[in-house]
Amino acid sequence: MRTVVLPGSFDPFTLGHLDLVRRAARIADHVIVAVSHNPSKRGALTVTQRLDVIEQTLAAEGLTAQASARALPSGLLVDFCREVGAQTVVRGLRSQLDLAYEEPMARMNDHLAEVDTLFLLTSAQYAHISSSLVREVHALGGDVADMLPPASAHALGPCPRPTGEDAS
Ligand code: PNS
Fold first, then answer.
1. Where are the alpha helices (DSSP H) in the chain?
2. What distance in Å separates the CA atoms of residue 55 and residue 63, rounded to the nearest whole number?
3. What residues flank ligand 1, with Cβ below 6 Å?
4. 10 DSSP β-pair partners
5. Could you read off the pLDDT of 6-51 as tens digits, one per residue?
6. Residue 146 belongs to domain with CATH number
7. 18, 31, 38, 147: most buried, per Cβ within 10 A?
8. Residue 164 C-alpha to ligand 1 middle, in angstroms?
């Protein structure tokens, strides 16, 4: 059984991420969506909330046989890959900027444990969507619902500051 790991912060899990899960599931027998916790990043959702969102989304999309969600323990990604029996990491590429960020990590994971990284080019309709921009738009009162699966939009909640309303 070929298992692949799709790691990321997923804060929040977007339609671009869901598209990657679907496409990775066409290549592998099982996709583990591994949710990382980065204490230096100010997040919108807790890891537990992100896992709930991903599990609800996989269920809603009929993907539970092909994909599952796990918290990524602190430590090396390659150690997690070994633990779950995966030899391949999947990452999405929206642009050449993403490749510049990804290339050293992919080479390091290969060096450490011969874990390959399979890059999927982000589908064009999602190429402008990143979790960080979604968080920013949402925090400034913009509507992000059409960039997210329903469970993700629900977890983020209503805009904290509706457009046009001055906090001062
Ligand atoms: O969505 P993100 O925040 O860009 O995901 C980054 C992630 C989780 C893929 C990256 O931080 C990672 O691989 N973390 C595991 C730590 C690790 O193994 N580092 C050394 C090898 S690159």
1. 15-27, 47-60, 77-84, 96-113, 131-139, 150-156
2. 9
3. 7-9, 36, 76-77, 105, 108-109
4. none
5. 999 999 999 999 999 999 999 999 999 999 998 877 789 999 999 9
6. 3.40.50.620
7. 31
8. 37
pTM given for the model: 0.94
Q: What is each CA distance from 34 to 2, 81, 95, 125, 148, in whole angstroms?
A: 16, 10, 22, 24, 18
Domain assignment present for residue 144? The answer is yes
What spacing in Å lies between the alpha carbon of 106 and ligand 1's midpoint? 10
**142 compared with 42, residue with greater pLDDT:** 142
Q: Is 80 within a domain?
A: yes
Q: Is residue 99 part of a domain?
A: yes
The tens digit of pLDDT for each residue in 55-68 reads 999 999 999 999 99
- Looking up tokens 């509706």 gives 162
From the CA of 8, how far away is ligand 1's center (Å)? 7
Q: What is the pLDDT of residue 165?
A: 52
Ligand 1, atom 4, residue with closest C-alpha: 8
What pLDDT is stored for residue 162 in this prediction? 58
Query: Which one of 82, 105, 111 would you pick to mutate in the ligand 1 pocket, going by the greatest count of ligand atoms within 8 A of its CB?
Result: 105
Alpha carbon distance 80, 115 (integer Å) = 11
* Residue 1 binned pLDDT confidence (cut-offs 50, 70, 90): confident
